[in-house]
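TL;DR need structure tokens for one chain.
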Amino acid sequence: MCEHFVARAAQPFRLDELWPFTERLERYGLAGFGWGAAWLSAGGRLDDHLDVRAFRDDPEAGVVGAVETTSVLVHLRRPSKLSTLQLADTQPFLDPAGRFAFSHNGDLRLIREARRRFEAEGRIHGRADTEVGERWLEDAWATMPSPAAALRCLHETFGGQANLAVLTPAGEAVAYAGNTENPVYTFRLGRIGIASTALYSIDRSLFRLAAPGASERRVVKPGRSVALDERGFATP
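>> reply
TL;DR here they are.
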């Protein structure tokens, strides 16, 4: 029952411009079991911050909020298995080669064989299914024509109710809607474009409770991806 979102804008913004929305997304989305963010740094690389505490309880959230960026991925945890409450399972995951950051909301079901293989290779450090998806994405990334294609193929490989998101050093922010229990919406908060999960509510309570000032609201159909362009506008 995690929540996550990607955001992008034409001009740099402070991350704490999104903190009121993030706090409400955590609260009404029943998250609060750890959080993380990955963002595009001024040097053209991906930086991140992870904490096993809730976003609202992390004293470093204010420090992270002062960071300026044009693209960010934020993940708020409420794991299906509370035995995974550890830093090794906190998202987003950063690709060791720096090619992308990855997060997941829901479940990846057909992971047993892949987990055994990655464990034998010494690449599994936690207990959550998301890490299996991350390792698979690391291996498949170079063969995929686009981040959207990579996310779609990952979901086709493992199945389950799974929303997925990636952020790249080029600033690409892509969300995949594959969890029918938690829709994905695109919208704008001022000059910032966002693709976000929806509080595990199949109505539009996301906008009433977490993003009341949102404009240009659209739902992403299940099985589809959406990318935020250089101005933060959603494109299929």
